[in-house]
Write a structure and sequence with these properties.
Elements lengths: L1 H27 L3 E2 L7 E7 L6 H11 L5 E5 H6 L1 H9 L3 E6 L10 H19 L5 E2 L10 H4 L4 E3 L3 E2 L5 H6 L1 H6 L4 E8 L11 H19 L2 E2 L2 H13 L1
Parallel strand pairs: 1-6, 2-3, 2-8, 2-9, 3-4, 5-6, 7-8
Helix pairs in contact: 2-9
Length: about 240
């Protein structure tokens, strides 16, 4: 019976450290941003990159339609593909932290989380000579220490997520789901790399195809796309006025 009690205590401690803080933070909106109060505006965000094939293709599409986006990058991939990150920065996109490796905060100690943040920040700074201001944890998972360890960053979640890590979704329903989004300051979450747990490696190829159609149609409707850096800059200027 002692081992059963130990297991129950472990499960309870795990829930209090990981799952419960995630639920409370996301439901309360405490210190996180999920959308903006801005009509006819959308914030495009991309997680898990950079990818040596698909991120370049994505940047081509964004450049074609003159759209600025935000990339939440993995520090390990920044170290692998610095030229892609430099291109992101050069073309006016915002670059934020996603962790050094794609590991859930549920599995990280407070010091482990701090290490993930610091290593990614250093990788980004080494690449573009700017410190990141924004952070989105993988899978949107928080732990009991997240708000303290990440207090120097703006925590960005999303208003809409599309399961675009699956090829079948990208082929069948992604465009429809994107088109259905209300352009009222929505933050859209997509993925430019499929080399993470549960994702399909070629999914970004089909995501980009649907995204290009969506961008073309949205531009015709007068929808404005803005990066997180520009969004917060505009908000600060309005407050200053």
């Amino acid at each position: 019976m002692d081992w059963m009690l130990a297991i129950l205590i472990f499960i309870l401690l795990f829930l209090c450290y990981s799952v419960i803080p995630t639920v409370l933070i996301r439901r309360s909106g405490l210190n996180i941003v999920k959308n903006f109060n801005q009509k006819q505006a959308v914030v495009l965000t991309f997680d898990d990159g950079p990818n040596p094939v698909y991120t370049e293709q994505l940047l081509d599409v964004l450049k074609k339609y003159q759209v600025k986006a935000t990339f939440f990058v993995l520090g390990s991939r920044v170290d692998q593909y610095p030229e892609i990150v430099k291109r992101m920065h050069r073309e006016g996109h915002t670059i934020g932290i996603h962790h050094y490796r794609h590991v859930s905060s549920w599995l990280l100690s407070p010091l482990g989380l701090r290490n993930q943040l610091i290593r990614t920040e250093k990788a980004i700074y080494s690449c573009i000579q700017e410190y990141p201001d924004f952070y989105r944890p993988p899978w949107g998972h928080f732990n009991l220490a997240t708000l303290f360890m990440a207090k120097k960053y703006r925590l960005i979640m999303w208003s809409d997520i599309f399961s675009d890590w699956r090829i079948d979704v990208c082929k069948s329903t992604l465009l429809q789901k994107l088109t259905a989004v209300t352009a009222e300051g929505s933050i859209l979450l997509l993925h430019d790399c499929g080399k993470t747990l549960g994702a399909q490696e070629e999914a970004p190829r089909y995501m980009i195809e649907s995204l290009e159609t969506y961008l073309k149609e949205s531009k015709q409707k007068g929808i404005h796309f803005i990066s997180l850096r520009d969004q917060f800059k505009e908000s600060e200027e309005i407050v200053a006025l």
